[in-house]
Amino acid sequence: MKLTTLLENTACGPELRADHGLSLYLETPRHRVLFDMGPNGDFAVNAAALGIDLRQADVAILSHGHYDHGGGLRTFLTLNDHTPVCIHEGAFAEHFARTHSGGLRDIGLDPALRDFRDRFAVTRGITRIDDELLLFDGAEDTGNFMAASASLLERGADGELRADTFDHEQNLLVTAEGKSVVIAGCAHRGVVAIRDRAAALLGRAPDVVVGGFHLFELPAGDPAADALIDRTGAALAEGETIYYTGHCTGEYALSRLKGILGGRLHRFCGGESAEL
């Protein structure tokens, strides 16, 4: 399997664009999978520069309802007029981030994207696409790893704002060529919880986990933040799973995790490919 990072916070070359967001392209024996579309159309610009034809994608997946993963959805739907997008039923809820000043910033999807509802394959729970691809939500955070996303909110059905439960977050489990790969967007429910949920579905730990770990908001050097990062690293160190991360993990957390996981943790950047 070949994974190419179409877009993330950094770029591997001056000809490529970088944004706060994520877009991945996975080539398996059966499929060409677009996973997330970044905050705008830059993922498509990078795909063209890398020689990737997004019209050939036969599966598209939106990991959750935040703009930095779904802002480029309109671009994809315009470029590719036939491939459905697997999107969780909760993705179009209202999502917000609390700012340092105490205000709110809208981080949800553009409501006008609902106009493309005929192109959406709406998901919840476990959705098996075929023998290679399975989507799952509901990773149970038993270790309070979601504390790293404490500033993120959603508006409930009653109209009240509350802490985001990330029920709208889904992850991809790929089984092909004798390997299992988990792809997450931001792992808001905790990368440990997502890995463990995949392991329960597989009956064994996945070989590879890819995605942002959403630790970048934790203040560097804060004892509670360092303890959460270190606890995450210690849990990830169990077993032999290999990790690829970037985007919302944050440089400080990534460096600290690297000290725990060593060569089992890899940093991805925009334009880079890896054989999984």
Provide a descriptive summary of the structure in words.
With 276 residues, the protein is an alpha/beta fold. It has one domain (2-275): Ribonuclease Z/Hydroxyacylglutathione hydrolase-like (Metallo-beta-lactamase, Chain A). The chain has helices at 42-49, 67-70, 73-79, 191-202, 223-237, 251-261; strands spanning 2-7, 23-27, 32-35, 59-61, 85-88, 95-98, 104-106, 120-123, 126-128, 133-136, 152-155, 161-163, 171-176, 179-183, 208-210, 242-245, 265-267, 273-275. The strands form three sheets. The chain has a seven-stranded mixed sheet. A seven-stranded mixed sheet has the order 9-10-13-14-15-16-17, covered by helices on one side. Strands 7-6-11-12 form a four-stranded antiparallel sheet, with no helix packed on it. Helix 5 crosses helix 6 (251-261). The mean pLDDT is 97.
Overall pLDDT score: 97
Describe the strand arrangement of the main beta sheet, using strand numbers.
8-5-4-3-2-1-18
Contiguous uncertain segments of 5+ residues = none
The CATH superfamily name is Ribonuclease Z/Hydroxyacylglutathione hydrolase-like
Output the CATH topology.
Metallo-beta-lactamase, Chain A
CATH hierarchy class name: Alpha Beta
Let me know the number of strands: 18
* Sheet with the most strands, sense and barrel status: 7 strands, mixed
The amount of helix comes to 10-25%
| Count, helices | 6
Strand residue percentage: 25-35%
- What is the element string, with H for helices and E for strands? EEEHEHHEEEEEEEEEEHEHEHEE
Instruction: Provide the gyration radius in Å.
Output: 17 Å
Structural class: alpha/beta
Number of domains: 1
CATH architect. name: 4-Layer Sandwich
Shape: globular
Distance between the termini: 5 Å
